[in-house]
Amino acid sequence: MRAKRLTMVLIGSACLLAACSNEPAQQEAPRVASFQSASSAPTAAASAKPERARERLDTTPEEREAMLKPYNQCLRDHGAKSVKDMRRGTPSQADLKKAEAANKACEDQMPLPAWELDPANPKAKDFAVAVVECLKGKGVKYVEVNGDGDIALGGEQNDKTSISKGMDLMPECERQSAAAGN
Predict the structure, then answer these.
(1) Is residue 149 part of a domain?
(2) Residue 135: inside a domain
């Protein structure tokens, strides 16, 4: 009985091998999640666009300038001046039209705002509210979250003290709010 079973298994295996060798080799992608090492990763990822830069709450001006390099290069490639060059003088109407068209073509290279400030973040407005509470706690009189979820300083009075004090204290309140998990 045992020999008969072993013979059947061997014959079945031989048939399977023969059937497999006659069919063209087709390898199907795995249907379960799996890990791939960097060396075995698909080469299609190499042709994908690089990930868009994202600022952080503690991004330095130097880091921001470095993040803006691809965007500024794209603007120049599309016949417009860089952000820095546009700030240096009063741009002409032609410069503004070129900049508008180039910005549309290059906007996907503009660094994203810090996640806490990004309108795509569903908790961004809560973060802004926490920052406003912090600013008010530090004596900024006219500060609020506007309808877009942005922080508005100075109020309708355009209070210069609230604006300057709020601008000075904003980074500290953003760090405190982020550390508190808001």
Answers:
(1) yes
(2) yes
With 80 as the cut, is the pLDDT of residue 21 above it? no
Note the residue count of the chain.
182
Q: How confident is the model at residue 155 (pLDDT cuts 50, 70, 90)?
A: confident
Is residue 129 situated within a structural domain? Answer: yes
Token couple for 139: 């004596």
Q: Is 146 exposed, middle or buried (0-12, 13-18, 19+ CB in 10 A)?
A: exposed
Mean pLDDT (the chain) is: 79
Residues 103 and 132 in one domain: no
Q: Domain end: 109, 127, 145, which one?
A: 109
- The DSSP call for residue 112 is B
Q: How far is CA 114 from CA 26, 48, 160, in A?
A: 46, 23, 26
pLDDT at 48: 58
Cα–Cα distance measured from residue 119 to residue 2, given in angstroms and rounded to the nearest whole number: 71
**Range list of H helices, the chain:** 2-22, 61-77, 83-88, 93-106, 124-137, 160-179
Token pair belonging to 132: 């406003």
pTM above 0.90, yes or no: no
Instruction: Give CA angle at 78 (76, 84), nearest 5°.
Output: 30
The answer to whether residue 28 is domain-embedded is no
